[in-house]
């Protein structure tokens, strides 16, 4: 400060004036507060569509499909929105991790998505899920429908039959085991008749399967088919 004085400089010249706007004056002599009692007639519009965009609607249906069966109207909405929209198809929330939950109650949705992805790299990823989850009537029927409409690679079908046989062998509860064995037997016979699988690739396993569950009527029929196709060299 002494140096500034020696230089004949006034320190007040370097102070910055902070401008503050002058507050406006209210006209009138009374002020009114908004009391809650004055707002007691509010009404909510329950018809308001919060999720009006297509992506949000499809995502909600996919989430619902993981828990329960969707309505025919909801399924049609998915078809209409995703039929020709690649962006919605890739971002709607249908993933391999959700596939097991959707299969049991909404096989038609799974079939639709696989049809839309049959030419993409994701198709094989979706198929691979089937050899990691429980074998149930729903999964077996879905594999049959997928093969009928899209032609699953024979190597995958052969491996899936192998997976089903191993799954049946590992079921502990007898009643459940018998039920699944029946479905698997019908499933294998169907693929043998349609030549979707070759008997030579599974002969040893099928014979062992038939011997293990010979008490089941459907297995006895499968054994006859296996023997007949083996003799024909199919």
Report on this model:
The protein is mainly alpha-helical and 234 residues long. It has a domain at 154-234. Helices cover 58% and strands 0% of the residues. It has twelve helices and no strands. The termini are far apart.
List keywords for this structure.
234 residues; mainly alpha; RNA-mediated gene silencing; transcription; CNOT11; cytoplasm
**How much helix is in the residues?**
55-70%
How many helices? The count is: 12
Q: Give a quick account of the main beta sheet: strands, pairing sense, barrel closure.
A: none
Query: How far do the termini sit from each other?
Result: 108 Å
What's the count of strands? 0
Outline: elongated
Mean pLDDT: 83
What string gives the helices and strands in order?
HHHHHHHHHHHH
Share of β-strand residues: under 5%
Category by helix and strand content:
mainly alpha
Radius of gyration: 35 Å
Unreliable stretches (pLDDT < 50, length at least 5) are 46-52
InterPro entries: CNOT11
Organism: Paramecium sonneborni
Keywords: Cytoplasm, Nucleus, RNA-mediated gene silencing, Transcription, Transcription regulation
Family: Belongs to the CNOT11 family.
Give the arrangement of secondary structure elements.
Elements: H1 2-6, H2 54-65, H3 72-82, H4 86-91, H5 99-105, H6 107-116, H7 122-129, H8 137-150, H9 154-170, H10 174-193, H11 203-212, H12 217-232
Short description:
The protein contains twelve helices and no strands.
């Amino acid at each position: 400060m002494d140096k500034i004085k020696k230089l004949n400089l006034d320190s007040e010249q370097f102070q910055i004036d902070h401008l503050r706007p002058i507050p406006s004056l209210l006209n009138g002599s009374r002020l009114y507060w908004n009391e809650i009692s004055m707002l007691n007639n509010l009404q909510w519009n329950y018809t308001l569509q919060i999720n009006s965009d297509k992506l949000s609607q499809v995502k909600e249906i996919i989430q619902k499909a993981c828990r329960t069966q969707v309505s025919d109207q909801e399924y049609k909405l998915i078809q209409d929105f995703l039929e020709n929209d690649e962006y919605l198809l890739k971002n709607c929330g249908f993933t391999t991790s959700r596939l097991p939950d959707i299969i049991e109650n909404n096989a038609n949705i799974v079939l639709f998505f696989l049809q839309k992805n049959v030419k993409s790299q994701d198709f094989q990823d979706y198929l691979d899920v089937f050899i990691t989850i429980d074998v149930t009537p729903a999964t077996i029927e879905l594999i049959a429908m997928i093969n009928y409409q899209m032609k699953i690679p024979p190597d995958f079908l052969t491996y899936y039959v192998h997976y089903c046989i191993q799954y049946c062998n590992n079921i502990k509860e007898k009643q459940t085991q018998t039920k699944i064995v029946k479905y698997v037997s019908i499933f294998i016979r169907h693929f043998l008749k349609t030549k979707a699988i070759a008997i030579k690739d599974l002969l040893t396993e099928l014979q062992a399967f038939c011997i293990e569950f010979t008490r089941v009527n459907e297995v006895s029929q499968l054994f006859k088919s296996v023997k007949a196709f083996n003799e024909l060299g199919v």
